[in-house]
Amino acid sequence: MSATVRKPFTLNGWHVLAGFVFFFGVIFAVNGIFMYQAIHTFPGQTADDPYTAGLEYNRTLAQKAAEAELGWTAEVAKDGDVVRLIVHDREGRTVEGLNVSGKLEHPATEQGRRMIQLKEVSPGSYQVSMSDMTGAWDFSATARDKAGHVFEAHRRLIWP
Q1: Per-residue pLDDT tens over the stretch 47-70
Q2: Nearest to 141 by CA among 157, 124, 118
Q3: 112 by DSSP, 3-state: which?
Q4: Are residues 32 and 104 in the same domain?
Q5: How far apart are CA 75 and CA 157, in angstroms?
Q6: What distances in angstroms separate CA 119 from CA 53, 83, 128, 159, one per listed residue?
Q7: pLDDT recorded at residue 21
Q8: Which of 40, 74, 81, 133 is positioned for an S-S bond with 153, CB 3.0–4.6 A?
Q9: CATH of residue 129
Q10: pLDDT block averages, 10 residues each, the chain of length 160
Q11: Exposed, middle or buried, 137 (CB in 10 Å: 0-12/13-18/19+)?
Q12: Backbone angles phi, psi at 24, to 5 degrees
């Protein structure tokens, strides 16, 4: 019987080249998959008209100052499929008779945006029923009174 003797493994240039090619091939493949997913799932710009929004920034600051002077606060709550908004004045009383409109949109995209109208169901309490909601949604509401005061409320809501 003859015993075969194995040569010990020696690392040479071809092994090193193959290791580098394999390593960077995996890196390029994973980066390619990530780039494809990022490009094909992002709908584009996040503002309807970013140039105009930039020009109107001073108007936005004035609106926020007017809201602060008004002293209104809002409670936003979700109970099942119902989104409820309660607006309080500076003294803590509820504010009645507001026209409340709003929108629900996903935090990272404008796809699936829903425009909503909240109805006053009790003095100072406004609500809307939303069905088939899942995941995270950003809720924005704009409340206007008869005197022309405008108040905005924002909250992230999460449905299972």
Answers
A1: 667 788 788 888 888 888 888 888
A2: 118
A3: coil
A4: no
A5: 12
A6: 29, 11, 7, 21
A7: 97
A8: 74
A9: 2.60.40.10
A10: 79 94 98 92 70 83 83 84 87 85 83 85 86 84 86 85
A11: buried
A12: -70, -25
Judge whether 125 and 98 are in contact, CB under 8 Å. no
Query: What is the pLDDT of the chain when averaged over all its residues?
Result: 85
Helix, strand, coil abundance in the chain, percent, nearest 5:
30, 35, 35
The pTM of this model reads: 0.59
> pLDDT value at position 46?
64
Q: Is the residue at 28 inside a domain?
A: yes
Bridge partner list, 140: 103, 154
Which residues form the domain of 34? 12-42
Using an 8 Å Cβ cutoff, are 96 and 67 in contact? Answer: no
Q: Which of 102, 133, 100 is nearest to 119 (CA)?
A: 100
SS3 116: strand
